Amino acid sequence: MKYFNLKTSRFLFSISLLLSAFTVFSQQNHGKIKGTITTSDGDAAAGVNIILKNSKYGTISNENGAFEFNRVKANTYTLQVSLTGYETLEQEVTVTENETAALNLQLKVSNKELKEVVISSRKSILSKKTDYVARMPISNLENPQVYSVIHKELLQEQVAVNIESAIRNTPGAVPVSFPSGGIAIIFRGFATGINARNGMETISGRSSVDLANVERIEVLKGPSGTLFGSSISSYGGVVNLVTKKPFETVATEVSYTAGSFNLNRLTADVNTPLNKDKTVLFRVNLAYNNEKSFLDYGFNKTIAISPSLTYKASDKLTFNIDAELINSNNTRRTYNTYTPTSGITNPGDLKLDYKKTLFHDDNDAKTSGNKFFAQAEYEISENWKSTTLFSYVGENVERSYQTYAVWSSPTQATRRVGNWGPIENNFTNIQENINGQFSTGSIKHTFLAGLNYRLNESKFSSGIANFDNIDVTTGYTIFRRKTAEAAINQNSSVAANQQTISAYASDVININDRLYAMLSLRLDNFEQKNTATTKGYDQTAVSPKLGLVYELVKNQVSVFANYMNGFQNAAPVTQPSGDQLALDPIYAKQYEAGIKAEAFNKKLSATASYYNITIDNATRTFIVPGETLPTYIQDAKQVSKGVDFEVIANPISGLNIIGGYAYNENRILNTTDPLINGNKAAGAPANVANFWTTYTLQNKLKGLGAGFGVNFVDKSYFLTDNIIYMPSYTTYNATVFYDQPTWRVGVKLNNLTNEKYWDFYGNSQAPTNVLINLTLKF
Predict the structure, then answer these.
(1) Dist CA 679 CA 21 (whole Å)
(2) Are the CB atoms for 16 and 439 separated by under 8 Å?
(3) What are residue 358's phi and psi, to 5 degrees?
(4) Which of 81, 85, 101, 675 is most buried, most CB within 10 Å of its CB?
């Protein structure tokens, strides 16, 4: 086989040399012009007209701002670049025989049309351009994976002040607030944490996430272990936050939002070049958030500082450095559970007032997150580049008081309080990616190879205690923290260090101008060290990903199919005999097929797909008669299947429409427990729908607009026994805004019908509320 591969490689190499020789011969006396165009804020400039004056040559830049002239006669030309709202640019370029003239051009805003451009040049909400989803430069129509992109412009329209409201713009996505304080998103039947930041590992299990430094939110659908690994992805997918980057012009934006429940939020975004040549760029985003809960007790105070620096060391080498420092002091929502004999079917049965809590807000949490990211991007050659990345995430918990209510009837509950802290979680990642493009004969390849080293170090302290049993209809005292402090015994431990070494590769094969195949593979070696009380273990996981894409209509409609794999490491377990059972990594395998469209001159973006996610080796437990300890077997099965639809449209100037629908059926199979076998998985609503539309006047009173939205979430079960459920709900929201070149004002009304609804943990959600925002732009 090796001999065959060697002969094949030599044959292909010979063919490649012959093709190259033919190309050179055929292009004698000709050269090439190749370049990219960006706008004044550093974004790719699509749809730019480029001509060579006094010649027959002309073209338009693509969505990446790239353009190319082939077989250009050797001569000196004047390149003219024009786009509405920007100054026309002229650049002299000399074409030499058999060589490529490379250009990087940047447009400048026309002073005459500045007021129009400030509003009209905002990024389209239809754009799905990203460098992170595939870790290589391929477009949405070329990518066999389904993903959604939520832009900051949409969040500004919606006056979104937290990620829970922002994420509802993704089909099938339902936000979840963990009792520990973190945020997760449920889609495709599984909960996914906010675990990626600029494609690298982050964490939000106990600390806050602030939107002030978020450029866009990318939601990748389906098991994504092949490129992102088990620490970032879940079986449902990946949520990646893309942060704001420095650009080459001076700009400042200050925003203040006031609202119901004493909300006061102040943000600032300051960008400036630090030198005349604009090779050193700096940007900082600041946020201060202070609010009360709609409950009788509860609050949230958050401060975030996010500086970033770009240094263009040369035409080929660029460094990007950024940090995110977040400090939070807030209360966690109560974790409600229910005894089997409580008679409760859903939180609506409880006799506790919708706006009441059982605990004082001095049962609070104080946390901080320190995140550092560095990137060096080096252009090895015209078609190859190296990207070296480093990230450090430190999550520190000074204290985290978490409250629990165990309901034995609609009127009676036992109160429990625990304190998790101090806790230290430190995550270090070092990554190297090589991206390139090459050809084997007529077949083009877009290639990625990468290595990643991950280290997790943790220290942990916790304690929990049961307290009183109360009747919520006869009066009760609010539980204070001093009572918990006197009774809770803290237990400290050092968690075992974990390290993962990963290697991955992905090749997108352009078989012809319409047919693409993606072949990807990842190898992970996971090792957990020994501690005084816990034996370490070592696991190796192999995760493949395959995809096919065919463009039915070139650059407009494609059909796709994929096989994707995700995995989670599983620690060994002790059997009743005392033997250790070494578990395999738990794998989720997805098969999916669908269609994507970007049509009508980029005024419509749509995706529809059917998927089936199967976990064949989940671990199940049962008690053998005569034994007291559980026996473990790794043969359980879980199947999550459904459909995803997304439509984003801009049918006429000023009108934006976003719509999504997801159906999911996630069931537990192959278990010996008859009370669970065949049941639906916990926290997996069957039907989820989202809709949002805005219209902005384009002539008189230009910039004045209004918007309206609807979100529907079907009922979901609290546990796999399918007894307690969270009722379905529908919420309606509306906004009015006036957007001008130097200022913007917006008013948002949430939950217009005052719907009573609960999250996955049975916590009541905010009634009707209002947000008022004023933004100044300098």
Answers:
(1) 65
(2) yes
(3) -95, 0
(4) 81
Interatomic CA distance for residues 323 and 575, integer angstroms? 46
- CA 461 vs. chain centroid, Å, equals 30
Candidates 221, 171, 185, 184; CA nearest to 688 is: 171
Are the CB atoms for 129 and 44 separated by under 8 Å? yes
Which amino acid does the sequence have at 439? Answer: S
Q: State which amino acid sits at residue 685.
A: P
Mean pLDDT value of segment 4-30: 44
Given a contact cutoff of 8 angstroms between Cβ atoms, the answer to whether 724 and 761 are in contact is no
Q: Hey, what amino acid is at 31?
A: G
Q: What is the pLDDT of residue 41?
A: 63
**And the tokens for 471?**
């009747």
φ, ψ of residue 498 in degrees (nearest 5): -120, 135
Residue 631: Cβ-neighbour burial (10 angstroms; 0-12, 13-18, 19+): middle
pLDDT at 497: 86
Residue 33 has a pLDDT of 86
pLDDT of 114 over the 60 cut: no
User: Counting runs of H as helices and runs of E as strands, what totals does the chain give?
Assistant: 6, 43
For 447-470, the pLDDT digits (tens) are 999 999 999 988 889 999 999 999
Are 726 and 759 spatial neighbours (Cβ–Cβ below 8 Å)?
yes
SS (H, E, C) 668-682: EECCCCCCCCCCECC
Check if the beta carbon of residue 648 is closer than 8 Å to that of residue 606: yes
With a CB cutoff of 8 Å and minimum separation 6, the contacts of 11 are none
* 498-520 pLDDT, tens digit each: 899 999 999 999 999 899 999 99
User: Mean pLDDT throughout 121-143?
Assistant: 81
Indicate left, alpha or beta for 574 from its phi (over 0: left) and psi (-120 to 50: alpha): beta
Amino acid letter for position 676: I
Q: How far is CA 389 from CA 74, 306, 325, 370, 410, in A?
A: 41, 18, 19, 17, 53
Distance in angstroms (rounded) separating the CA atoms of residues 398 and 420: 8
766 vs 208: CA distance, rounded Å: 19
For residue 287, count CB atoms less than 10 angstroms from its CB and return exposed for 0-12, middle for 13-18, buried for 19 or more.
buried
The β-bridge relationship of strands 491-510 and 75-82 is: unpaired
Q: And the tokens for 487?
A: 């009774």
Residue with tokens 């809590």: 357
